[in-house]
Design a protein that fits this description.
Blueprint: H1 9-17, H2 32-36, H3 43-55, H4 61-67, H5 75-85, H6 88-93, H7 96-100, H8 107-118, H9 120-132, E1 154-158, H10 166-175, E2 179-181, E3 190-193, H11 199-208, E4 212-213, H12 215-221
Parallel strand pairs: 1-2, 1-3, 3-4
Length: 225
């Protein structure tokens, strides 16, 4: 989650068993003397752990949100919530309706987020991480090259592509005002199809009369052909 370099499973177990780390905020209270007292932790290992902890303070907010282990909120959803909310204070104060308005956040997930931050120890953990210098907001995004060409359009991506990766196409959709969706429905506006498109998706798109476009057509649509 936070991917602290130098802290693998073995060192995590060692730190936990020694009572030095019970939650992620405890990593930021570690000191050289405390680490040096542990068996199998020499000077270089202690330095590596502390260097990794310090470096983790630059981990982006979406990964910090994921590291909070909110039930039903995985890495992808953490990224969507972080981008929509911009900072931890907004996440913690969002209403159920505001959360559900975020892409892929349904009622169960919204309730899980609200319940997580209604529990005071979880809020205390957030404040401890904040005080440690961990990122609690998304960086300002450069929107100078964003457009509204796909504004309000829901697009499903399926298949293998040659000109860009799937993640790059997802980014292009969002950059041009569109919305990435995972499954085809009558609300889908386009299917961006590569080679080996899933047969079930192809059949459903054809049945619903949804336009299927290839990557060249998509790039032409957003003016990047």
């Amino acid at each position: 989650m936070m991917d602290i370099e130098g802290v693998g499973d073995e060192n995590c177990s060692l730190l936990y068993d020694a009572g030095l780390v019970k939650d992620i905020a405890d990593f930021y209270t570690l000191t050289t003397p405390a680490l040096r007292e542990l068996d199998r932790v020499g000077p270089r290992t202690a330095d590596r752990i502390l260097e990794g902890v310090e470096a983790s303070k630059s981990v982006t907010f979406d990964r910090v949100l994921y590291a909070l282990s909110i039930p039903y909120v995985g890495a992808t959803l953490s990224r969507k919530v972080a981008r929509a909310a911009k900072n931890i204070d907004a996440v913690m104060s969002m209403s159920r309706e505001e959360l559900i308005a975020i892409d892929d956040v349904g009622p169960r997930i919204a309730d899980s987020i609200i319940e997580h931050f209604a529990y005071q120890p979880n809020r205390v953990l957030v404040e401890r991480l904040r005080e440690a210098g961990v990122q609690m907001s998304m960086p300002e995004e450069d929107t100078s090259d964003h457009t509204t060409i796909l504004d309000g359009k829901s697009i499903v991506i399926s298949g293998v592509f040659a000109l860009h990766s799937r993640d790059e196409y997802k980014a292009l959709i969002e950059k041009n005002g569109g919305k990435n969706v995972g499954s085809i429905s009558k609300k889908t506006d386009y299917v961006l199809a590569g080679d080996n498109m899933g047969p079930s998706k192809l059949e459903k798109a054809q049945k619903l009369g949804i336009p299927i476009i290839n990557e060249s057509q998509f790039l032409e649509m957003i003016g990047q052909a």
